[in-house]
Amino acid sequence: MEIFKDFLYILIEGKEISFINRSIGNLISANILPKINYDVIEVGGSGNFNSIAKILYRKSSLHRHIPVIAIKDRDFTAQKTINKDNHTIDATLIENKAAKIVYWLRHEWENYLLEETETIANILNQLPTQAKGKKPYKRNTQNTLTKEQLDQWLIEYLQNSICNELVECLRFRFIQHYERLKLDKPQNQISSLDEIEIWFLNQIQIKGGESQTKIQYLETILDNKLQEITWKSWFHDPMMLDIDQAKRLFQGREALKHLFNKAYHYLSIRELKYDIFVEEMLLPEIEKNINSAILHDIGLMLNVYFQQAANLTGIE
Question: Shortest CA distance to 88 belongs to which of 74, 108, 77, 102?
Answer without folding.
Answer: 102
